[in-house]
Amino acid sequence: MFSLTKISKDKKWIKLSFAILIPTMLALMPTSWLPMEGLTIIQHRVLVLFFLAALFWVLEPIPIYATSILLITLELLLISDSAFIFFKNHGDGNFGASMSHQEIMGTFASPVILLFLGGFFLATAATKYRLDQNIAGVLLKNFGDKPKWVLLGLMCITAVFSMFMSNTATTAMMLSILIPVLKFFPAQDKARTAFVLGIPIAANLGGIGTPIGTPPNAIALKFLSQSDLAFGKWMAFGLPVVIIMLTIAWLLLMFFYRSDTKQIKVSLPVDFQTNPKAVLVYVTFILTILLWLFDFVHGMNSYVVAMVPVTVFLSTGIINKEDLKQISWDVLWLVSGGIALGLALDKTGLAKTLINAIPFESLNPYSLFAMAAFIGLFMANFMSNTATANLLLPLIASIGTAVSGLELVGGSELIIVGTTLSISCAMSLPISTPPNALAYATGEIKTKDLARVGILIGLIGLIVVIGMMTILNALNFLK
Amino acid sequence: MEKIYILLVEDQREVLQAVAKDLSFFEDAFVIEECESAAEAKTIMETIYKNGDYVALIIADHVMPDKSGIDFLIDVNSDDRFIDTRKVLLTGLATHQDTIRAINSAAINHYLEKPWKSGVLKETVKKMVTEFILAKGIDYQPYLMTYLDQAVLFERLRRTT
């Protein structure tokens, strides 16, 4: 958890020692002490790595993407077929199966990582050619000058953009449009709060809409890959959730923060570039989205389609070497860490051993579903959404295969999707998400504003998500 | 964690203290170092560099005995150890020629005129340290609430993927 108010220096060391000490103690314990039938030495090590990852991602003694890399490196050193000599099998019968180092390293180039790279390229090109601001300007014209409609307009635009751009970038852009407008509101007008709250809420929720909307979706896709969930299929349930939640959020904001102002004008200069490169950006943007949506026509899956904008933009110089450096590689590597953790749980058989040791079968599938979604929502309020997904989704994926009654709620797939969507509904604190932090830093909103609306959205979101999953289950959607 | 320094270079002690007083707002997050000459500033910068810390910003007066502020900033500008360091000239007595040199050879980022307004100085420093923090890739989150210029931050974050 990062701090927004203190420049802390000493606490980092306490956190770091704690996050190293606990896993080390667990590692030094003889394998036979652990109450798990058939736990191999390799599985014991994976268990240690899981605790280490959890503590590092929760306490953040080092950046969260660095934790991912640490995790992957430790997997290579401790449990791969190319491990450090001390950690290789020296004739121990209970050693267990080591993992292929190629497979661990391959997580850096998983199809979902390349899908996100495609999304990043679209976003980079769009901002470079000011497509984002121009589209925002065009859309804004349709929402008139009544504060409540302008608020709805800003929230809709934010949500749509955050489906394709990062939630942080969208929030930064929309806040920079909004802040100069706020001075037209009287200082005591509650609408100021509504407007500044509306942006991060819409950005957080918008990420639900598409597979590339927010990194937790990537991790979900990875664990769903058996069912090969397509872009359009995700949008078929993601978009309705966004629309419902956005409407609820808008109503909540109008209920809590009624505006006294009669008229408000938000406008942006619209100035589309018409040079060939800019036109190519527009065409590629539309083409990629169409290809993503109509995969059942042309047969290329979302991952393959993602290579189209990457290739077009690189070969035409629309994205050059310098732009390439601006890509958020940290986000991609953060996701790789989650994938590598899931891989280790699965391939070493630790998932199965865990399931045998803990009586998951006795759990009611409905309560398991609700519990997973709630834990996701809860954790993501205090830590990074992606780190939450990195920890929870591999666990859910493995538990899901063991609990027999899960078909009732649609199997582990729906629990994974449900938890992922719930994670994006976590926004009750300034530190919950980067968009929240940016809005909070404007000084226009208080923690209690975020808490009031954020907690309500979280809880309503949980109900909406579970409702949506129930409908998908009834339709046999992910089968 | 590395320390981030703001250097004030000014030969008149009372002016130096006045600037420092106006910037006391930044003291909790940054180290504000008062230097009475370019030579003193250089020595301090060597130490900061050796310790692996950052010089985010230099605010220098122009007219000083020994080395002028602009000559000092020209030296800093050609020193690639301080390539991202922001340079502000704070002066009331620069000629037209001085100003040309300050822009062309020292590549100053901002020009403040004496007497300065406390609020303007504060906003300028915010803007400069925000640019420095983003240029260096330092985690901006701990500084977000108090010390950053939002327009600069938002413009940069809009381009993140």
UniProtKB/TrEMBL annotation, chain A:
**Superkingdom of the source species:** Bacteria
Membrane topology label: Multi-pass membrane protein
Which GO molecular function entries does the Swiss-Prot or TrEMBL record give?
phosphate transmembrane transporter activity
Q: Does the keyword Membrane apply?
A: yes
Q: Which UniProt keywords apply?
A: Membrane, Transmembrane, Transmembrane helix
**Where is it chiefly localized?**
membrane
Q: Where in the cell is it found?
A: Membrane
From the record, give the transmembrane residue ranges: 12-29, 41-59, 65-87, 108-129, 149-182, 194-214, 234-257, 278-294, 300-320, 327-345, 365-384, 391-408, 414-432, 453-475
What cellular-component terms does GO give this entry? plasma membrane
Q: What is this protein called?
A: Dihydroorotate dehydrogenase
Q: Which organism is it from?
A: Chryseotalea sanaruensis
For this protein's source organism, the top of the classification is:
Bacteria, Pseudomonadati, Bacteroidota, Cytophagia, Cytophagales
TrEMBL record, chain B:
Domain Response regulatory residues, every copy:
5-129
- Key words, A-Z: Phosphoprotein
Q: Does the keyword Repeat apply?
A: no
Q: Which domain of life is it from?
A: Bacteria
Q: Which PROSITE patterns match?
A: RESPONSE_REGULATORY (PS50110)
Species whose genome carries this gene: Chryseotalea sanaruensis
InterPro entries this protein is in? Bact_response_regulator, CheY-like_superfamily, Sig_transdc_resp-reg_receiver
Q: Which SMART domains match?
A: REC (SM00448)
Quote the protein name from its UniProt record: Response regulator
Q: Does this UniProt record's set of keywords contain Phosphoprotein?
A: yes
The alphabetized list of GO BP terms reads: phosphorelay signal transduction system
Residues bearing 4-aspartylphosphate are 61
